[in-house]
Write a structure and sequence with these properties.
205 residues, single chain, 3-stranded antiparallel β-sheet, mainly alpha, 77% helix, 3 strands
């Protein structure tokens, strides 16, 4: 009959239904292979952690507002004592630091908080033991903060004596340097902590 002739055969139905399943299987196999690749796995986790930080940070910033204010004030105070070591004409009032008449306000972005979060995401995403990750955070975060203190000190000197290039140093030079700073500390951790420990492990028979 005509109605029976227009109906697909059972083999055609099986072929059509098997096609999506075949694509899904290949996609799963590709994802599994990509996940086993350390480079792809790091990139995926790093982007995931950054996305989580990006979504959560505004709420955390509001909830921990006092912590952020304390970091800004503390950074200004540390810079004040650093300049005082050299007997310079420096003063501090809350988050405002003045050096020889040149004044800047230490805001949240000046506390290295963004650099610390990016570095933490890179350390956590790297495929190694949690002990080594803890070492990386324990050593890397203070180092990043210390480098940031040096960055602010340099900018204060530039603003005091070379005001014409202050905007360039602040907006362009040091922004690019901060990326290099994060990468350098992260690579230092990999070469000096992660790989060194792996090289000192006894060979397995």
């Amino acid at each position: 009959m005509e109605t029976e002739a227009n109906q697909p055969s059972s083999s055609e139905g099986v072929g059509r239904s098997a096609l999506p399943r075949g694509r899904i299987a290949r996609a799963r196999a590709w994802l599994s292979a990509a996940w086993r690749n350390p480079a792809y796995r790091f990139a995926a986790l790093f982007l995931l952690y950054l996305a989580v930080i990006g979504f959560a940070y505004p709420a955390l910033r509001t909830y921990f507002r006092e912590v952020g204010n304390a970091m800004s004030t503390g950074t200004a105070q540390l810079e004040y004592y650093l300049f005082k070591l050299f007997g310079t004409d420096v003063s501090v009032s809350d988050t405002t630091l003045t050096f020889g008449g040149f004044a800047v306000q230490i805001i949240e972005e000046c506390t290295a908080i963004y650099e610390i979060l990016i570095f933490s995401a890179a350390v956590l995403a790297f495929q190694t033991s949690w002990r080594k990750k803890a070492v990386g955070l324990a050593l890397g975060l203070p180092l990043l903060y210390a480098i940031n203190l040096f960055r602010i000190a340099v900018l204060m000197v530039v603003g005091r004596y070379y005001a014409s290039v202050f905007d360039f140093m602040h907006l362009y030079f040091w922004q690019a340097t901060l990326i290099l700073m994060i990468t350098s500390v992260w690579l230092l951790w990999i070469f000096k902590v992660v790989q060194r420990d792996e090289e000192t492990l006894p060979a397995r028979s």
